[in-house]
Design a protein that fits this description.
11 helices; 6-stranded antiparallel sheet; alpha+beta; Arc Repressor Mutant, subunit A; Jelly Rolls; 9 strands; about 300 residues; 2 domains
């Protein structure tokens, strides 16, 4: 596919700057790194190319092929895991706010059917039997990206129309067979098992030594895995996982002091420091921000 519009440099900011729709086309060609993160919006992620071992969505692990589409709900953690020496990483990311999808649902409840299907299956990967469909979706996303980089009139309207066209195409093309099961099995690699354990025990005391003993390996083995595959230390990953869950709970209206205890911080001052460092906002500032965003989408 010819690309006249260049990709943007990766922006680690993982929140929408637009109220309804935001499109990004990113190409990293030198040691890509993407933190574990979640959003308060829906993400449609189209994989183009990259040195990935797999992509984690929650505790689901997916091996991606070109043209694969991930549908990631709000507040579900996700991040790529790169092969050693990874260089190239190309993808499109379309973000839709909850409020925007709720508006579309009022007109046509079927417009979010593909999201509901993934929710019911508890899987997030769509793989299409025809490469033509994947190419058409990529072309649509690229046209949306080009629209945001241009100077034509009515750009926001054109972007919304393209988004609706893409959602209609998805809902007409997707079936239960299109939803691909994750790779997780009895022989999951060690990193996979440790990540799953952290996801299930973030509210407890999690020391590197205790986790290493649980999996019958040395602390240095786990630390090396996290550093090599994720680019973070074990403790940094735990902190990120806890803060992501804290954001979820604050957005759900849980009292902040309770959130601190629920997320493994019996000392509120430690929670405050970790949360503020990771998000750039204090817990109370983050709560006010979420309260201003209004009602959530019906697809929940």
């Amino acid at each position: 596919m010819k690309r006249a519009i260049r990709p943007a440099a990766f922006d680690p900011q993982q929140e929408m700057s637009a109220p309804q729709i935001e499109i990004r086309y990113c190409l990293d060609e030198d040691s890509p790194a993407v933190d574990i993160h979640s959003h308060n919006h829906y993400e449609l992620y189209l994989f183009c190319e990259g040195d990935l071992e797999w992509y984690m969505v929650g505790t689901k692990r997916y091996t991606l092929q070109r043209g694969d589409l991930l549908l990631i709900p709000p507040m579900v953690t996700h991040h790529p895991i790169f092969r050693e020496g990874a260089r190239r990483y190309e993808r499109y990311v379309l973000w839709c706010s909850r409020a925007y999808l709720a508006q579309l649902e009022e007109v046509d409840p079927d417009i979010t059917g593909v999201f509901r299907l993934c929710r019911e299956r508890e899987e997030y990967l769509l793989r299409f039997p025809s490469p033509d469909l994947s190419q058409a979706l990529e072309s649509e996303l690229h046209n949306m990206w080009a629209e945001t980089r241009g100077s034509e009139r009515c750009r926001s309207t054109a972007l919304r129309l393209s988004c609706m066209r893409l959602l209609v195409r998805l809902n007409r093309s997707v079936s239960a067979d299109t939803v691909v099961a994750s790779d997780r099995g009895a022989e999951s690699p060690l990193l996979d098992q440790v990540i799953t354990y952290v996801h299930g025990h973030y509210g407890e005391r999690l020391s590197l030594q205790d986790v290493a003993r649980r999996f019958f390996v040395s602390p240095s083995t786990i630390e090396h895995l996290f550093s090599q595959k994720l680019g973070w230390s074990f403790y940094r990953y735990v902190t990120k996982r806890r803060v992501v869950e804290a954001r979820n709970q604050i957005a759900a209206g849980v009292p902040i002091q309770d959130v601190s205890h629920n997320c493994g911080y019996p000392d509120y001052s430690n929670f405050y420091k970790a949360f503020t460092k990771e998000t750039g906002l204090s817990p109370s500032q983050y709560r006010r921000l979420r309260q201003r965003e209004g009602p959530e989408s019906l697809v929940e």
